[in-house]
Model the fold of this input.
Amino acid sequence: MSVAVIGGGWAGLTAAVELTERGIPVTVFEAAPQWGGRARRCAVRLGATEVDLDNGQHLMLGAYGECLRLISRVHADRPGAGSAPLQSAATASPESPFVRARLHIATPDGVLLQRTRLPGVAGIVGGLLGASTLSLAERWALVRFLGTLRWHGWRGFDGLTVLQLLTRFGQPRQLVRRLWDPLCIAALNTEIAAACAQTFVTVLRDSLGAGGDATDFIAPRSTLGALFPEPAADWLHRRSASLRLRTTVRGLEPVDSQGSAWRLQTGAGAAAPREEFAALVIAIPPPNAARLLGAAAPGVAASLGRFEFDTIATVYLGWREDPGLAPVTMLAEDAGQGHFGQWLFDRGAQDGWHVAAVVVSAQGRRAPIPPAELARQVAAQVAQQLRVPLAAATRVLVEKRATWRCLPDRPRLTPDSCGHEARHLQRLWLAGDHACPDQYPATLESAVRSGVAAARGVAELLAGGG
Ligand SMILES: Cc1cc2nc3c(=O)[nH]c(=O)nc-3n(C[C@H](O)[C@H](O)[C@H](O)COP(=O)(O)OP(=O)(O)OC[C@H]3O[C@@H](n4cnc5c(N)ncnc54)[C@H](O)[C@@H]3O)c2cc1C
Done:
């Protein structure tokens, strides 16, 4: 019997790769017609052209160690790919599936944050010398804040919101508005007044607090699909894993009272196919997992049902000529003026267009804006703030349940939560950005870490004769 992985997003595919690597046969079920879940390739219409882009703009950091390891793994032995580990060859190699850039955040008024070549945290502190948009007092407050968090061991902030944390450590109002508020929304997709302080501190520890290349910006060279999900499916296929796209798992039940194997039902009705598996990795978003687990693991299902979600919109802008954008710009958000755009990413030239992606996160804070109106406002904001021509084409993609709200009292789940609920549930493992063993927000890195941990758990269980 093989192990079933339910869900072909970054978490599920990671679990499948890790299990396959250990010689354990896997079957991956994915409801959609493509791999990647919330981080996938997407054809975006700009004018009369379909441009190969993503369902939503994503940014990774150098701190995403497990993501980079898995990406390297599935690319390393692709037919035609070199055998050098891509992680170290990142920027230099044109075959590398991602581009990597030293931390540099431009704003319409100048530089906000950057890293110099100095090693470790010294590079961040050195970069502050050129942070022209921050006053001396603000730069000092920033350094003091990071130093204080380090002194506290980056822990001890459970139950606080980010705003409470920033207030407790005397962060100036302007610094909060210019830096901490947008960084918190970018990292946690949750506004500072509600966001979990401890998770934010953990993200700071592993990025600005670590310094060096942990703060690098990493983006796919072409699309998110080509970065991991598609090569991962290829990698699995070449190792004879069973891959089932367009297959929704609709039910699961233990074959006996000990849960010594699990039966899955795909399709609807009494005649729907049922197959048995030695163990299950359930790598689907919390509401879907809650429905699937309702009868089998009611405690875990109840926790899964408590997650709240927020929206992210990506506004793609297209120009016929290169408007000369910085790779990453933090826009000045001001909802009162209709300036909803927060971050702009230059996606370069494609299919006759020069494309940029503007991210509008934590949209749930305000009444929904019709996509056409959002596109018009964001295009006007970019033209005004960056002094570039108005984009000739726009397209808005909205992900309603982009990420769970990172609140201090959100449910805490780990891959082995089912096994903790009852002994007969030991062959059920959770994966997904909500089941990361570390206290991370909903990110690609959390999804991948959860997949790694779930696969390790399954492997240990099976190796122990369980
Ligand atoms: C617009 C947007 C921007 C983002 N920006 C960033 C960013 O900049 N940086 C970052 O790190 N993260 C970002 N994220 C978050 C990141 O995309 C997610 O954390 C990550 O993709 C979650 O992966 P996952 O595998 O846990 O879940 P998912 O990607 O949701 O995968 C679950 C899969 O399960 C499938 N499925 C569901 N039910 C069933 C079923 N019953 N049977 C079979 N299959 C099923 C779904 O179709 C889906 O493919 C962003 C997300 C969005 C939407």
Summary: The chain has 14 helices and 20 strands. The chain has three domains: 3-40+225-307+408-463, 104-215, 309-404.
